[in-house]
Amino acid sequence: MLRVLVCVSGGGTNLQALIDSMESGKVRDAQIVRVISNNKGAYALERAREHHIDAVCVSPKEYPDREAFHAAFLHAVEESDPDLIVLAGFLVVLPEEMIRKYRNRILNIHPSLIPSFCGTGCYGLKVHEKALERGVKITGATVHFVDEGTDTGPIVLQKAVAVQSGDTPGTLQRRVMEEAEWELLPRAVDLFAHGKISVRDGRADVAD
Ligand code: GRF
């Protein structure tokens, strides 16, 4: 059974999609062993607890500096002994030590077709604002492994979503979640659990 740790900061709809897919058997041979949030008000923590999943908050506000926060965060990660770490709307930059230790074992979901509308400062609603500003007709979501850059790691899965006339950042965000994110993230975890993802020369290969 693959031990999955999920890191969250907000509402947790991607976490919910993962939980539902595990409960329905769509994702097999994987279990969420812990959910960590950097924000104690995150609704994602409640979603986890409702499903009897260990849910903890490690907030930078409770530590004197970044170094102390990173040490506490890494401790909470390691304690859960994960095989795979999933960033599901996690808004904290990971300690480099963690990226090295779990290389090609940390998945992130980003709500655009990378390399469009990504990078430092491009997260949440801003991604969809930029897509609408640029006038793209197609956007989507990407699941990728995390490396030392921002949204630069090996791409695992992508799915396109059509932009509709009259879209606002909010309606586009919702459609990207419904049509792409909630499908891609569970699929990526299932593929990982079955050894179907390999990485070579900075690129991920998926065997279906
Ligand atoms: C999602 O759009 C995800 O792609 C992004 O942050 C959002 C998190 O939403 N990284 P939720 O907390 O899973 O509802």
Topology, pairings included?
Blueprint: E1 2-8, H1 13-24, E2 30-37, H2 43-50, E3 55-57, H3 66-79, E4 84-87, H4 96-101, E5 106-110, H5 125-134, E6 138-145, E7 155-162, H6 169-193, E8 197-200, E9 203-206
This protein binds 5-O-phosphono-beta-D-ribofuranosylamine (GRF).
How would you sum up this structure, described in words?
With 208 residues, this protein is of the alpha/beta class. Helix content is 36%, strand content 25%. It contains six helices and nine strands. The strands form two sheets. A seven-stranded mixed beta sheet has the order 3-2-1-4-5-6-7, covered by helices on one side. Strands 8-9 form a two-stranded antiparallel sheet. Helix 2 (43-50) links the parallel strand 2 (30-37) and strand 3. Helix 5 (125-134) crosses helix 6. The longest helix is centred in the last third of the chain and has 25 residues, at 169-193. It is globular, with a radius of gyration of 16 Å. The two termini are 20 Å apart. Bound molecules: 5-O-phosphono-beta-D-ribofuranosylamine (GRF). 5-O-phosphono-beta-D-ribofuranosylamine (GRF) binds next to helix 1, strand 5 and helix 6.
**Strand arrangement, major sheet:** 3-2-1-4-5-6-7
Number of helices: 6
Bound molecules: 5-O-phosphono-beta-D-ribofuranosylamine
Residues in helix, %: 25-40%
Low-confidence stretches: none
**How much strand content do the residues show?**
15-25%
The span between the termini is 20 Å
The class by helix and strand makeup works out as alpha/beta
**Total E-strand runs:** 9
Mean pLDDT: 97
Radius of gyration: 16 Å
The major sheet is characterized as: 7 strands, mixed
The rough form would be described as globular
Order of helices and strands: EHEHEHEHEHEEHEE
